[in-house]
Amino acid sequence: MASSQKRSLRLEKGSWRLEAKTTAGILLVLALLGLLSWICLSQASKVSTVRYSIRKKEAEIGRLQRENAESLAEVTELINVSHLEDVALGLGYGPAEERRYLDVPGYPGDVLRGRLAEALSMDESAVVAPEEPSGESRGVAQWWEKLLSQFVAWAEMQP
Amino acid sequence: MIVRGRIASQNNNDEGSESKERAFRRLAFVIAILIGLGLVIAVRLFQLQVVQGVFGSGQEPPLPNYMPKAASHRGLIIDRRGHILALNIFEYEITAAPKEIEDPEDVANQLSPLLDLSPDELVSVLDSEKPYALLKKRVSQEVANAIDSLKFWGINLEPKLRRRYPDGELAGHLLGFVTYALTGTYGVEGFYDLRLKGSDATSEGAVYYPGQTVPVAFDQRALPQDGTHLILTLDRNIQHLVERELAKAVAQYQADGGTIIVMVPKTGAILAMANYPSYDPTRFYEALELHTNPAVSHQYEPGSVFKIITMAAGLDAGIVTPDSTFYDSAAIEVGGAIIYNPDRRAHGLVSMTDILALSLNVGVAYVSTSLGEDTFYAYLERFGCGDHTGIDLDGEVAGTVKEPGSREWDESDLGTNSFGQGVAVTPIQMIAAVAAVANGGVLMKPYVVERIVDDRGVMVAQPTVVRQVVSVQTAKQLTGMLVETVERGAELAIVPGYDIAGKTGTAQIPVGDHYDPELTIASFVGYAPADDPRFIALVKIDKPRLDPWGAEVAAPVFRAIAERLFVLLDVPPDNIRLASR
């Protein structure tokens, strides 16, 4: 009888010991869950904050785009062809009644041609004699001279 | 034994109550920890949502009253000089969530002057338990800004993209329009709809209000892709000029309407395309019967202008030369039908140049019958008659050429088709065919979009050669004949100082199984300078009541346009231009 009572007492104590372990486990799990919740909430918070700020910026961009579109429409309507024509006519402008095509002396080829001719007919004494060019630079000089003479010949052929 | 038993029982009871007490303490500890954890989370939530204020302080909505889903913007349409012909504006739909409005009367009083609605009318809508109510459509940006500044909770502004055409009716048919469903229809808008519209942003996620996703939802998004911009070959100044001259001519000759196309023959680029009557594409809903573009969608019998094609075929096939002669006895019989000249007179011995200059039906019928049906219709096919030109505009229709040997075709058609009767073309087909003659015999595909601009760069449209329809020699000979034709038969088209090649047309209008005895289509097609064409223009005036003749109605319109085109395109008179070569 006594031994059976002792066993039941030991069993009871044993069950309490088991409960303590479970409790510790539950606490650990809860602590972990709490920690995870904290991390998750923090991340969700950051994500939502960033997302929110992005959406605010998107809304701002959208607003600016809409205002820009409105301004563009206003400007474009102000410079539409009918409006411009009315303004031009109001200022006394209109289609030319008569057109004449003129030969403008010295425009623009003649000016260039004159300058080149002037440069080529410079008094040699006024020019400091250059050093004897090397073979390579002589080649370049000849090429340049040839090109220049071709250009002058071409320019002279222009009306 | 009994006593011992009692003592044992008492000991057991003491231990039981002690262990229960310990259990309660542990339970209390666990609960305390749970409460602690709950408090920590609650504090953090409070910190996040209230202190850091994801949703703000609660004094006012932190976001504007509208947060539309990111939408793409439709591309602009711009002319070759950089003027914007089609752009986007925004109008707003004002909606309400009556359940969320605390003081409907105050809101109604403040919105009433802005929305141009009576306060009572607004209160009847706002003072309800409905989750959603539409207050007003098509509200301007200015009014929307004013409403937004009031910061009413429960009043929403939904921006809606609308297309606007700042030049009104200018090039209305060519541009087409965009419906309220943002679908491009007709013209450039219809043809390039997919390119112009771009793609909206896509998102998946929880929605807390129509069109609004919950910020914390983990959605997937693709950014909106704006539509491409189109730069046209069209010149706004030339278009304006052409439309003005067309309207003037229609009024002057009491015509029903008309069409003018100006094209660069060497490339096929369209510089102007005008129809009268036209419509403003911004208000497309006001002119439902005018939506189709007659320049590409309406067929007509071209009349004598078509003699250019017949003569080109005759010259190219070697049947005739410009100086070949033919005895004109005022009439010719083809397939049992007697064909007469427009003046019903006999002109005796005439050259092929005379035939064009005097616009002799009998002469061209002689050419077509000399060619024979196979060769003649093969040339028509080569010129693109009866087919689409492939222009990049919505709604182009093909012309109609009866197939020889078919049930509809009659042998007499070989004669009548030669001067543009019994054959139907669209204005764009006609000008493209004549442009081939101006372009040394090379048929070009007409086009209106020169460049396509998007984020990736600029795509430049290259002129497209369709085919060589006649030889360079033929084109040159025919151009010479057409210059003489203008000098002798269309003096009103002449611009002093310039050689113009062209041909008039006065076409009868088929009504059922006969032709209208009075009404005609007066037309002129011409290009200049003849030796190096910078432009070709087709003028077509429908049913002019005061004067039926192309030489008197359409030719002067051509001259008025050509005079200005020489200036706008910087083309000096022939003597100066040729001397400077």
Can you describe what's shown?
- The complex is a heterodimer of chains A (159) and B (581).
- By secondary structure, chain A is mainly α.
- Chain A has two domains: 79 residues; 39 residues.
- Chain A has four helices and no strands.
- The longest helix of chain A is centred in the first third of the chain and has 77 residues.
- Chain A is elongated and about 115 Å long.
- With 581 residues, chain B is an alpha+beta fold.
- Chain B folds into two domains: 132 residues, Alpha-Beta Complex (Penicillin-binding protein 2a (Domain 2)); 336 residues, 3-Layer(aba) Sandwich (Beta-lactamase), CATH 3.40.710.
- Chain B has 18 helices and 24 strands.
- In chain B, a hairpin with a 2-residue loop joins strand 22 and strand 23.
- The longest helix of chain B has 50 residues.
- The radius of gyration of chain B is 38 Å and the shape is elongated.
- Chain B starts with a helix and ends with a helix.
- The interface between A and B is large, with 50 and 54 residues.
Spatial shape of chain B: elongated
Largest sheet of chain B: 7 strands, mixed
- The CATH superfamily name of the largest domain in chain B is DD-peptidase/beta-lactamase superfamily
Number of helices of chain B: 18
* Separation, N- and C-terminal Cα atoms of chain A: 140 Å
- Characterize the main sheet of chain A: none
Quaternary structure state of the chains depicted: heterodimer
At the first level of CATH, the class of the largest domain in chain B is Alpha Beta
Outline:
Chain A is mainly alpha-helical and 159 residues long. Chain A has four helices and no strands. Chain A is elongated and about 115 Å long.
Kindly list the characteristics that best describe this protein:
heterodimer, A: 159 residues, mainly alpha, 0% strand, B: 581 residues, Penicillin-binding protein 2a (Domain 2), 2 domains, seven-stranded mixed beta sheet, five-stranded antiparallel beta sheet, 18 helices, 36% helix
